[in-house]
Amino acid sequence: MLDFSLHPTSFLLHPANAQIVRTENVWQQVYQRLPDLPRENQYISKETGKAATENTLVGRLIRYHVYVKSRPPNYRLDWKLTLADYLGANELIVESVYPGYDSLRQNPLEGDRAAVSRMNRSQRDALVQVLVSFFGGNAQNATTPPSTSSPAPQPTPQRRQLPQPGDAQLLKNEKLKME
After folding, report:
1. What's the pTM?
2. Three-state secondary structure call for residue 104
3. Complete DSSP assignment for 3-57
4. Judging by beta carbons within 10 Å of its beta carbon (0-12, 13-18, 19+), is residue 93 exposed, middle or buried?
5. How far is CA 81 from the centre of its chain?
6. Could you read off the pLDDT of 77-117 as tens digits, one per residue?
7. Which residues contact 79 (CB under 8 A, 6 or more apart)?
8. pLDDT, tens digit, for every residue of 163-175?
9. pLDDT at 137
10. Radius of gyration for the alpha carbons in the chain, expressed in angstroms and rounded
11. CB distance 64 to 99 below 8 Å
């Protein structure tokens, strides 16, 4: 069995819409959409001895979320839990399994935590929205600017009628009629 737990070139298959998302490319698209996000890509590669500029905060955040924590990438709440991990408000992040621990000379975890804590709430919310858009199969909406025209009205969904007093007796009567 292959282990893709921390490999940045892994794939995610979304069976609902048969779409394959390459996790290695999403971080680049997130930075295109949100260019003010911190990159935190100044760390030195153990292998080359040079700055690993492709190893970014968002890339590590995605790998941590998907491969370390095994959280689904298409739900806002799960991304918010991941950000809460970085802020120290949810689960403990184990340094020895954090993305970049084994490939960078310095573990980027503390720098990443500091970068996330410097982000304001609206920046974190925007990051979550863009990530959900990419992984939820709605990447086109994530990369195009919002439309200035008003959206088409959505049809009102049909509400299920709640049981009323006497409904059980009606069911019993129907059952008796069928026998």
Report:
1. 0.69
2. strand
3. --TT-TT-EEEETTTTEEEEHHHHHHHHHHH-TTS-----PBBTTTSSB-TTS-H
4. middle
5. 10
6. 999 999 999 999 999 999 999 999 999 999 999 999 999 99
7. 65, 71, 73, 127, 128, 131, 132
8. 677 767 766 766 6
9. 64
10. 23
11. yes
